Amino acid sequence: MEKATPVYVLSGFLGSGKTTLLEQWITTLKQAGLKPAIIMNELGEVNLDGLAVDADVPMTEVLGGCICCSGREDLGMQLAELIDSEHPDVIIIEATGAANPMEILDGITETSLFMRMDLKPLVTVVDAAHLLGLYRDQKGKTYRLMQDQIRCASILILNKQDRVTSEELTELGALLNRWNPHAAVYPAVRCKSREVMAWFEDSLNGSGDNGTPWARPVRETSEKHQEEEQAEPPSSPFKVLNASHSHVMVYTHYFEVPVNSEAFEALIAGLPRDVYRAKGVLTFSDTSGRYLFQYAYRASDFMKINPQKPVPDVAVFIGEHFDQQQIRAQLLELEQEARDN
Ligand SMILES: Nc1nc2c(ncn2[C@@H]2O[C@H](COP(=O)(O)OP(=O)(O)OP(=O)(O)O)[C@@H](O)[C@H]2O)c(=O)[nH]1
Which ranges are annotated Basic and acidic residues under compositional bias (predicted)? Predict the structure, then answer.
């Protein structure tokens, strides 16, 4: 089976340190002999961040707007083109600081309907001093957007630790914990964090392991750190949160055989409430042609389609803390039933 391309999304407010982290990841990938490709989204018409990245790394730019609003389809297309033309081992998307990550995830999963991708847990970089200032004012669009970016993340890098006092850092840690109790939080200067790098390397090794990396590496890291945490003196300004599962999850299922349409509809109708979005392309065993299905906020829709190029049978589920294994087991059962009939 064709290999799934791992896709990482870096979110975080303007100037928080995303490009700084991106450069470190690129270095790591190259040292491991892997070929990275980058999608950069800048609000301006010129990609200034891109200048900081190695010239030999394939890069696609989505300029002049925020991928999450104006160019969602653009993002999907760019992603597909990048995979087709460059065959990278890993893709990293650096979103503009003004983007809402949920919308970006939605754009990316469109592409996974026709290309094998392994979407990794979302990483958000937070500028400690900026967040502190906004938190003290408690208002404005920026404040709310930063909250959204924090809430969607599975991993939070509390960057620019050097620009706040240790008391402020503790206060911010508690704040992040309240806003997103599921994410692991790592304070850092210039995004340098041993734990985040270990997670990154670990998650690369887990690529292609359909869906599981969403739950695994953070847990491993946090388990390790629980032990370290206990050994830390009580005055330690930080603790790593016990993130047993990633926060916003995506489960992608590639079908090996056409399944029964009614059984599939029944499965969709019975999805847990925590799955708030699903979509896919399917061939059914009991109908002719292919269907695009969409599910949002408990309503589903099936539309007959005629893809212009080969597209796998696939379903993508997005939600918070849902049991991916349960959905996977149900889908495998449908496939088994189809084989038996
Ligand atoms: N003091 C301090 N400066 C940092 C730290 N991390 C990054 N910076 C600086 O902050 C500025 C912004 O960093 P970038 O990595 O470009 O941030 P970004 O999130 O990519 O910025 P946008 O693309 O504008 O959203 C740069 O001048 C960095 O050198 C840090 O931990 N401490």
Answer: 217-228
